[in-house]
Please model this.
Amino acid sequence: MLNKVIIYRQGSVIYGFGYIKDQLCYVTQDHDGFASEAVFNAKIIKINHAEHSAFIEYASGKTGFVNLAKGAKLQDGANLLVQLTWLGDESKQAKFRTSVQLVGKYAVIALSGSASADCSRASVAQRKTLSQAMLHYPAKWTLRSSVKQLNDIEPVLVEVERIGAQLTKLTTLNTGDEIIAGVPNYLKLLRSLPLAPECLIISNDKLVDEQLLDLQDCWLLDAIEYNPRLDMESELSAYRELLASSSYNLANGASLEIHCLSGINLIDVNSDKAKFSRSKLNFLVLDTIYQQICLRNLQGIILLDLLKNMTTTEQEQVIEYLKKLFKHDITNTKVLGFSHSGLCELIRQKF
Model:
């Protein structure tokens, strides 16, 4: 559980520092401008029917790329409701999807599909009330696992109203408008990860502080502090040094070598100075591997080169433990298992 979150603006960048038991575990970055999950009524610039894709203009002078459903009857110049999935970079355009989802801390709503309310994660006594509240806004609703941590469903009902208001807003479309604002990564920290009682959230940005106060009752944010004199420069400097280093030494004598080759992340475990058997060491390094993946925000394909000669049972135990670790990650991570070459393969989504 997060026991402290610091949201720090430095120029045009906002950093989110997430701590578990006062140890830094997550660092997020947001730049001024649009955030992922923003919804736009875009205009198709050029459609490729053969590839089922199109280039779109989602805001004035802003273009992006979207994959289309097979059989979609669209033409150049048509309007299209899209959701931002990736902001792009200097070499690639922003990416969008047509399957819009509105995600909260407790509930998710999908615009595609028939109206329904999956309340299976709530108690039997709560399901009728939640279902009625959700279906007041006809769409495909699903409760998230975070509902299980609540004793009272009032925050969920508040969030259903908030998301329902966003759904209503989608009925009023203006070409080129950002209809629904995206979710900054620092808010995804608070949305995706469980918070410890009295979790302290500090920010030096007034607009961020207002966002937090607006979400306080719904997301049960106990302690919010605004400190315009907050100084995180030394922490930022230490974090940049971590990112610049490809090696990480563990107290047990093992070390990790972390490299990115052609977009594939490789984490190599070395045991030259370790004091444990190879079998035991493989399990002892997993927590650190998880921590380094989250801290460095490794995304896409991640290959773990653990110490060799594991039995099938040991490999299965490693897979199950990794799944347990990534269960509460800020983004979705799939643990695919071991390849024939002995590498443990993961895929961690962008956020």
User: Anything to note?
Assistant: Residues 130 and 157 are 7 Å apart (CA to CA). The chain has a mean pLDDT of 91.
